[in-house]
Design brief:
364 residues; alpha+beta; 6-stranded antiparallel sheet; single chain; Penicillin V Acylase, Chain A; 15 strands; globular
Protein backbone atom coordinates (compact mmCIF):
# COMPACT_ATOMS: atom_id res chain seq x y z
CA UNK A 1 0.00 0.00 0.00
CA UNK A 2 1.40 3.38 -1.06
CA UNK A 3 2.11 5.76 1.83
CA UNK A 4 0.91 9.34 1.34
CA UNK A 5 3.12 12.19 2.58
CA UNK A 6 2.36 13.70 5.94
CA UNK A 7 -0.03 16.65 5.81
CA UNK A 8 1.45 19.78 7.40
CA UNK A 9 -1.43 22.20 7.77
CA UNK A 10 -0.63 25.28 9.84
CA UNK A 11 -4.21 26.51 9.40
CA UNK A 12 -7.19 24.87 7.73
CA UNK A 13 -10.39 26.90 7.78
CA UNK A 14 -13.06 27.83 5.26
CA UNK A 15 -11.67 30.69 3.26
CA UNK A 16 -8.03 30.26 4.25
CA UNK A 17 -5.60 27.34 4.39
CA UNK A 18 -1.93 27.55 5.34
CA UNK A 19 0.08 24.53 4.18
CA UNK A 20 3.79 23.88 4.70
CA UNK A 21 5.69 22.09 1.92
CA UNK A 22 9.21 20.85 2.57
CA UNK A 23 11.91 18.94 0.69
CA UNK A 24 12.97 18.74 -2.94
CA UNK A 25 10.62 19.70 -5.76
CA UNK A 26 9.28 16.18 -6.16
CA UNK A 27 8.57 15.85 -2.44
CA UNK A 28 6.91 19.25 -2.21
CA UNK A 29 4.76 18.54 -5.25
CA UNK A 30 3.57 15.23 -3.82
CA UNK A 31 2.74 16.89 -0.48
CA UNK A 32 0.82 19.63 -2.33
CA UNK A 33 -1.25 17.28 -4.46
CA UNK A 34 -2.01 14.72 -1.76
CA UNK A 35 -2.92 17.29 0.91
CA UNK A 36 -5.26 19.23 -1.39
CA UNK A 37 -6.52 16.42 -3.60
CA UNK A 38 -10.20 17.10 -2.96
CA UNK A 39 -9.83 20.82 -3.69
CA UNK A 40 -7.88 20.20 -6.91
CA UNK A 41 -10.58 17.82 -8.15
CA UNK A 42 -13.20 20.46 -7.34
CA UNK A 43 -11.32 23.09 -9.37
CA UNK A 44 -11.03 20.72 -12.32
CA UNK A 45 -14.73 19.90 -12.19
CA UNK A 46 -15.74 23.58 -11.96
CA UNK A 47 -13.44 24.54 -14.82
CA UNK A 48 -14.86 21.91 -17.17
CA UNK A 49 -18.38 22.83 -16.10
CA UNK A 50 -17.69 26.52 -16.80
CA UNK A 51 -16.64 25.75 -20.36
CA UNK A 52 -19.58 23.45 -21.01
CA UNK A 53 -22.11 26.06 -19.83
CA UNK A 54 -20.94 28.88 -22.06
CA UNK A 55 -22.85 29.95 -25.18
CA UNK A 56 -20.60 27.69 -27.21
CA UNK A 57 -21.36 24.81 -24.81
CA UNK A 58 -21.36 22.24 -27.62
CA UNK A 59 -17.66 22.93 -27.96
CA UNK A 60 -16.95 23.42 -24.26
CA UNK A 61 -15.09 20.20 -23.68
CA UNK A 62 -13.36 20.56 -27.02
CA UNK A 63 -12.16 24.00 -25.94
CA UNK A 64 -10.85 22.49 -22.71
CA UNK A 65 -8.65 20.11 -24.65
CA UNK A 66 -7.68 22.90 -27.07
CA UNK A 67 -6.41 24.92 -24.12
CA UNK A 68 -4.48 21.83 -23.10
CA UNK A 69 -2.78 21.83 -26.49
CA UNK A 70 -1.79 25.48 -26.11
CA UNK A 71 -0.54 24.76 -22.59
CA UNK A 72 1.68 21.97 -23.89
CA UNK A 73 3.45 24.42 -26.20
CA UNK A 74 4.73 26.28 -23.11
CA UNK A 75 5.80 23.14 -21.26
CA UNK A 76 9.31 23.16 -22.75
CA UNK A 77 10.06 26.63 -21.31
CA UNK A 78 9.36 25.62 -17.69
CA UNK A 79 12.43 25.01 -15.47
CA UNK A 80 12.99 21.28 -14.98
CA UNK A 81 12.57 21.43 -11.20
CA UNK A 82 9.17 23.10 -11.43
CA UNK A 83 8.03 20.71 -14.13
CA UNK A 84 8.99 17.89 -11.79
CA UNK A 85 7.05 19.52 -8.96
CA UNK A 86 3.92 19.84 -11.12
CA UNK A 87 4.21 16.20 -12.17
CA UNK A 88 4.45 15.10 -8.53
CA UNK A 89 1.48 17.33 -7.61
CA UNK A 90 -0.59 15.68 -10.33
CA UNK A 91 0.34 12.25 -8.97
CA UNK A 92 -0.48 13.26 -5.41
CA UNK A 93 -3.87 14.65 -6.48
CA UNK A 94 -4.52 11.85 -8.98
CA UNK A 95 -5.26 14.22 -11.87
CA UNK A 96 -3.63 14.43 -15.31
CA UNK A 97 -0.32 16.30 -15.42
CA UNK A 98 -1.59 18.49 -18.22
CA UNK A 99 -4.42 19.80 -16.04
CA UNK A 100 -1.89 21.01 -13.45
CA UNK A 101 0.10 22.49 -16.32
CA UNK A 102 -3.00 24.28 -17.61
CA UNK A 103 -3.71 25.79 -14.19
CA UNK A 104 -0.18 27.20 -14.15
CA UNK A 105 -0.21 28.70 -17.65
CA UNK A 106 -3.85 29.82 -17.86
CA UNK A 107 -2.98 33.44 -17.10
CA UNK A 108 -0.50 33.40 -19.99
CA UNK A 109 -3.19 32.04 -22.34
CA UNK A 110 -6.08 34.27 -21.20
CA UNK A 111 -4.38 37.20 -19.39
CA UNK A 112 -7.32 37.80 -17.03
CA UNK A 113 -5.79 39.12 -13.81
CA UNK A 114 -6.81 42.64 -12.75
CA UNK A 115 -5.04 43.68 -9.57
CA UNK A 116 -3.87 46.58 -7.41
CA UNK A 117 -0.79 46.98 -5.18
CA UNK A 118 1.22 49.62 -3.36
CA UNK A 119 4.41 49.92 -1.34
CA UNK A 120 5.39 52.70 1.05
CA UNK A 121 8.99 52.90 2.24
CA UNK A 122 9.99 55.32 4.98
CA UNK A 123 12.90 55.24 7.43
CA UNK A 124 13.95 51.74 6.41
CA UNK A 125 10.48 50.34 6.89
CA UNK A 126 8.18 49.14 4.09
CA UNK A 127 4.46 48.37 4.07
CA UNK A 128 3.05 46.59 1.01
CA UNK A 129 -0.59 45.98 0.18
CA UNK A 130 -2.10 43.88 -2.57
CA UNK A 131 -5.55 43.01 -3.93
CA UNK A 132 -5.78 40.26 -6.53
CA UNK A 133 -8.87 40.52 -8.72
CA UNK A 134 -10.00 37.67 -10.96
CA UNK A 135 -12.72 37.99 -13.54
CA UNK A 136 -14.27 34.50 -13.26
CA UNK A 137 -14.63 31.78 -10.59
CA UNK A 138 -14.73 34.47 -7.88
CA UNK A 139 -16.90 32.42 -5.49
CA UNK A 140 -14.70 29.33 -5.78
CA UNK A 141 -11.41 31.21 -5.49
CA UNK A 142 -12.44 33.07 -2.33
CA UNK A 143 -13.22 29.72 -0.67
CA UNK A 144 -9.92 28.10 -1.64
CA UNK A 145 -7.30 30.73 -0.80
CA UNK A 146 -4.13 28.97 0.32
CA UNK A 147 -0.85 30.23 1.71
CA UNK A 148 1.85 27.76 0.72
CA UNK A 149 4.90 27.94 3.00
CA UNK A 150 7.78 26.43 1.05
CA UNK A 151 10.94 25.13 2.71
CA UNK A 152 12.85 23.87 -0.32
CA UNK A 153 16.14 22.01 -0.34
CA UNK A 154 17.43 24.46 -2.96
CA UNK A 155 17.01 28.21 -2.63
CA UNK A 156 15.39 30.14 0.20
CA UNK A 157 12.16 29.49 2.11
CA UNK A 158 9.26 31.54 0.77
CA UNK A 159 5.50 31.81 0.86
CA UNK A 160 3.01 32.07 -1.97
CA UNK A 161 -0.63 33.09 -1.65
CA UNK A 162 -2.34 31.01 -4.31
CA UNK A 163 -4.81 28.14 -4.80
CA UNK A 164 -4.68 24.33 -4.80
CA UNK A 165 -2.82 23.06 -7.84
CA UNK A 166 -1.01 26.34 -8.51
CA UNK A 167 2.77 25.88 -8.30
CA UNK A 168 3.68 29.36 -9.51
CA UNK A 169 3.72 32.57 -7.48
CA UNK A 170 1.76 35.74 -8.23
CA UNK A 171 1.81 37.03 -4.64
CA UNK A 172 4.67 36.09 -2.36
CA UNK A 173 7.51 36.85 0.02
CA UNK A 174 10.70 34.97 0.78
CA UNK A 175 12.71 34.51 3.97
CA UNK A 176 14.97 37.40 2.97
CA UNK A 177 12.02 39.79 3.24
CA UNK A 178 11.54 40.21 -0.51
CA UNK A 179 7.99 40.80 -1.75
CA UNK A 180 6.61 40.16 -5.24
CA UNK A 181 3.15 40.91 -6.62
CA UNK A 182 2.01 40.44 -10.23
CA UNK A 183 -0.49 42.45 -12.30
CA UNK A 184 -1.61 41.62 -15.83
CA UNK A 185 -1.07 44.23 -18.49
CA UNK A 186 -1.70 44.09 -22.20
CA UNK A 187 1.21 44.43 -24.62
CA UNK A 188 1.42 44.39 -28.38
CA UNK A 189 4.31 41.95 -28.19
CA UNK A 190 3.46 38.59 -26.64
CA UNK A 191 4.00 34.94 -27.46
CA UNK A 192 3.92 31.44 -26.00
CA UNK A 193 7.70 31.00 -26.30
CA UNK A 194 8.52 32.05 -22.77
CA UNK A 195 8.51 30.86 -19.18
CA UNK A 196 4.92 30.97 -17.88
CA UNK A 197 4.53 34.09 -15.77
CA UNK A 198 3.77 32.64 -12.34
CA UNK A 199 6.42 29.95 -12.66
CA UNK A 200 9.04 32.50 -13.70
CA UNK A 201 8.25 34.64 -10.66
CA UNK A 202 8.23 31.61 -8.36
CA UNK A 203 11.68 30.54 -9.54
CA UNK A 204 13.04 34.07 -9.18
CA UNK A 205 11.65 34.57 -5.66
CA UNK A 206 12.86 31.18 -4.42
CA UNK A 207 16.46 31.87 -5.42
CA UNK A 208 16.78 35.59 -4.62
CA UNK A 209 18.90 37.20 -1.94
CA UNK A 210 17.93 40.74 -3.05
CA UNK A 211 15.23 42.34 -5.17
CA UNK A 212 17.92 43.04 -7.75
CA UNK A 213 18.37 39.26 -8.03
CA UNK A 214 14.64 38.97 -8.83
CA UNK A 215 14.91 41.80 -11.36
CA UNK A 216 17.78 40.09 -13.16
CA UNK A 217 16.07 36.70 -13.17
CA UNK A 218 12.85 38.10 -14.64
CA UNK A 219 14.28 40.51 -17.19
CA UNK A 220 16.84 38.04 -18.54
CA UNK A 221 14.36 35.19 -19.04
CA UNK A 222 12.18 34.56 -22.11
CA UNK A 223 8.73 35.91 -21.25
CA UNK A 224 5.24 35.47 -22.67
CA UNK A 225 2.80 38.31 -21.85
CA UNK A 226 2.52 41.84 -20.54
CA UNK A 227 2.81 42.26 -16.79
CA UNK A 228 3.56 44.78 -14.06
CA UNK A 229 5.56 43.32 -11.17
CA UNK A 230 5.97 45.12 -7.85
CA UNK A 231 9.17 44.19 -6.03
CA UNK A 232 9.86 45.38 -2.50
CA UNK A 233 12.26 44.90 0.40
CA UNK A 234 12.50 46.59 3.78
CA UNK A 235 14.16 49.66 2.25
CA UNK A 236 13.27 49.76 -1.45
CA UNK A 237 10.40 49.19 -3.88
CA UNK A 238 9.98 49.48 -7.64
CA UNK A 239 7.88 48.15 -10.51
CA UNK A 240 9.03 46.20 -13.55
CA UNK A 241 6.82 46.94 -16.55
CA UNK A 242 7.19 43.90 -18.78
CA UNK A 243 6.20 42.51 -22.14
CA UNK A 244 7.53 39.47 -23.98
CA UNK A 245 10.50 41.38 -25.41
CA UNK A 246 10.65 44.73 -23.62
CA UNK A 247 10.81 46.05 -20.08
CA UNK A 248 11.30 49.22 -18.08
CA UNK A 249 11.86 49.89 -14.40
CA UNK A 250 9.65 52.42 -12.61
CA UNK A 251 10.92 53.74 -9.29
CA UNK A 252 8.98 55.05 -6.31
CA UNK A 253 8.43 58.75 -5.71
CA UNK A 254 8.93 60.12 -2.21
CA UNK A 255 8.86 56.57 -0.90
CA UNK A 256 5.49 55.67 -2.51
CA UNK A 257 4.74 53.47 -5.50
CA UNK A 258 1.39 52.15 -6.76
CA UNK A 259 0.57 49.76 -9.56
CA UNK A 260 -2.50 48.39 -11.33
CA UNK A 261 -2.80 47.05 -14.88
CA UNK A 262 -1.61 49.79 -17.22
CA UNK A 263 1.93 50.80 -18.14
CA UNK A 264 3.15 54.16 -16.85
CA UNK A 265 6.62 54.56 -18.37
CA UNK A 266 6.65 56.28 -21.76
CA UNK A 267 8.51 53.45 -23.48
CA UNK A 268 6.00 50.81 -22.37
CA UNK A 269 2.99 53.02 -23.03
CA UNK A 270 3.95 52.93 -26.69
CA UNK A 271 3.35 49.16 -26.83
CA UNK A 272 0.25 49.07 -24.61
CA UNK A 273 -2.41 46.92 -26.27
CA UNK A 274 -6.18 47.45 -25.87
CA UNK A 275 -7.62 45.97 -22.70
CA UNK A 276 -9.57 42.71 -23.02
CA UNK A 277 -13.34 42.61 -23.30
CA UNK A 278 -15.53 41.11 -20.61
CA UNK A 279 -15.06 37.31 -20.51
CA UNK A 280 -18.12 35.04 -20.87
CA UNK A 281 -19.82 34.28 -17.57
CA UNK A 282 -18.41 37.25 -15.68
CA UNK A 283 -20.93 39.19 -13.58
CA UNK A 284 -18.72 42.27 -13.43
CA UNK A 285 -19.69 45.52 -15.16
CA UNK A 286 -18.14 46.24 -18.55
CA UNK A 287 -16.11 49.22 -17.34
CA UNK A 288 -14.23 46.94 -14.92
CA UNK A 289 -12.22 45.76 -17.94
CA UNK A 290 -11.29 49.23 -19.13
CA UNK A 291 -8.01 51.12 -19.23
CA UNK A 292 -9.70 53.99 -17.38
CA UNK A 293 -10.65 51.75 -14.45
CA UNK A 294 -7.02 50.73 -14.06
CA UNK A 295 -5.98 54.40 -13.98
CA UNK A 296 -8.77 55.21 -11.52
CA UNK A 297 -7.72 52.49 -9.06
CA UNK A 298 -4.10 53.60 -9.27
CA UNK A 299 -5.05 57.21 -8.52
CA UNK A 300 -7.18 56.16 -5.54
CA UNK A 301 -4.34 54.09 -4.12
CA UNK A 302 -2.02 57.06 -4.51
CA UNK A 303 -4.35 59.22 -2.44
CA UNK A 304 -4.73 56.55 0.25
CA UNK A 305 -0.97 56.14 0.55
CA UNK A 306 -0.47 59.79 1.51
CA UNK A 307 -1.86 59.21 5.01
CA UNK A 308 0.54 59.52 7.92
CA UNK A 309 1.39 57.43 9.75
CA UNK A 310 0.82 54.59 7.29
CA UNK A 311 0.93 51.23 9.05
CA UNK A 312 -0.94 47.93 8.80
CA UNK A 313 -4.37 49.33 9.68
CA UNK A 314 -4.01 52.08 7.10
CA UNK A 315 -2.90 49.52 4.50
CA UNK A 316 -5.97 47.37 5.19
CA UNK A 317 -8.18 50.44 4.94
CA UNK A 318 -6.67 51.25 1.53
CA UNK A 319 -7.35 47.71 0.30
CA UNK A 320 -10.94 47.89 1.55
CA UNK A 321 -11.68 51.16 -0.23
CA UNK A 322 -14.81 50.97 -2.37
CA UNK A 323 -12.77 52.56 -5.16
CA UNK A 324 -10.16 49.79 -5.14
CA UNK A 325 -11.87 46.61 -3.90
CA UNK A 326 -14.59 45.14 -6.10
CA UNK A 327 -16.66 42.02 -6.76
CA UNK A 328 -13.61 40.32 -8.28
CA UNK A 329 -11.24 40.85 -5.33
CA UNK A 330 -10.51 37.27 -4.31
CA UNK A 331 -7.24 37.87 -2.44
CA UNK A 332 -6.08 40.69 -0.21
CA UNK A 333 -2.84 40.79 1.76
CA UNK A 334 -0.52 43.17 3.62
CA UNK A 335 3.23 42.52 3.90
CA UNK A 336 5.75 43.82 6.42
CA UNK A 337 9.04 42.70 4.81
CA UNK A 338 11.27 43.73 7.73
CA UNK A 339 9.26 41.52 10.11
CA UNK A 340 8.57 38.79 7.51
CA UNK A 341 4.93 39.00 8.55
CA UNK A 342 1.74 39.07 6.51
CA UNK A 343 -1.94 39.77 7.11
CA UNK A 344 -4.26 37.78 4.81
CA UNK A 345 -7.95 38.52 4.33
CA UNK A 346 -10.34 35.63 4.99
CA UNK A 347 -13.85 35.72 3.60
CA UNK A 348 -16.09 33.42 1.59
CA UNK A 349 -17.37 36.36 -0.46
CA UNK A 350 -15.67 38.88 -2.71
CA UNK A 351 -14.37 41.42 -2.07
CA UNK A 352 -12.48 39.39 0.52
CA UNK A 353 -10.74 42.55 1.71
CA UNK A 354 -13.92 43.36 3.66
CA UNK A 355 -13.38 40.22 5.74
CA UNK A 356 -11.11 39.58 8.71
CA UNK A 357 -7.36 39.88 8.19
CA UNK A 358 -5.40 37.00 9.74
CA UNK A 359 -1.88 37.72 10.96
CA UNK A 360 0.69 35.10 9.97
CA UNK A 361 4.19 35.31 11.44
CA UNK A 362 7.20 33.11 12.20
CA UNK A 363 6.45 31.09 9.06
CA UNK A 364 10.10 30.68 8.09
Amino acid sequence: MKTLPEEKFILREKGLTVLQLEGNCSEMGLQHGASLREEIHLIRSKFIDYLSRRKWSVFGRLLYWLLMVFAKTMNRYIPDALREEMLSASKGANVPYYFILLLNVLDDLLNLLSCSSFAITKDGHTVCGRNLDYDIFTDLMAHLNTVFVYKPKEGYPFLSLAWPGYIGCLTGMNANGLVLTSHASYALDKNRKGVPTGLLYRHALQHALSINDIERAITSAPRSIGNNVLLASDNEAFVLELSAKNWKKRKSREGIITVTNHYQTSAMKSIQAPFISKPPGSSLPDDFFSYNYSIFRDEQLGESCKKEPFLVNEAIEALRSEWVANEATVQSVVFLPSEKTIWVAKSLDAPVSLGKFIKLEDLF
